[in-house]
Specification:
The chain has one helix at 2-19; strands at 30-34, 37-41, 50-59, 69-76, 90-94, 100-101, 115-116, 120-128, 148-149. By secondary structure, the chain is mainly β. The strands form 3 sheets. It has a 4-stranded antiparallel beta sheet, with no helix packed on it. The longest helix is centred in the first third of the chain and has 18 residues, at 2-19. Bound molecules: calcium ion (CA) (2 copies). Residues 60, 62, 64, 66, 68 line the site of one calcium ion. One calcium ion binds at residues 60, 62, 64, 66, 68.
Amino acid sequence: MRKTLLFGFLLVFTMPLLAVGILPAPEGFVAFISGDTLHTEWLAVEGAAKYSVNVAADYDTDGDTIADISVDFDFGTSDRTDGYLMGDTFLDIPVAELVLWIDSNVDGIEDPGEVFEPVSIKARVKALDPGKLKGRQDNLFCAFDEDMTI
Ligand SMILES: [Ca+2]
Ligand SMILES: [Ca+2]
């Protein structure tokens, strides 16, 4: 009798945990720059509601041609403004959104020498399925594609 009760207890309280699905990393990820746009696309992940594209951009802020600052950007397909669906498996990111501004004199104005275009970027994507009892969305990213020199 006691064992049965314990089993029932465990079943009820572990069900939400069992329902937590960790989505696999998307496959077939491709990223390339076309004109002023970083184009990314990948294969659909079953169960994914949307996706998050992570871009790591490197900047040369002292003109020695060697990158010295790296900045991470995240772009969600749910934030897209191109009219497509958040579950669609591509995302175009304007390279202009990857510009780094270091306001060195903190005047709120882009002074000469404060604005930097990335010298190289790389990108990756992960699938998301947020919601109640669906757990943390720290799903796996695919591997970074190769560095793209701009
Ligand atoms: Ca440098
Ligand atoms: Ca400034």
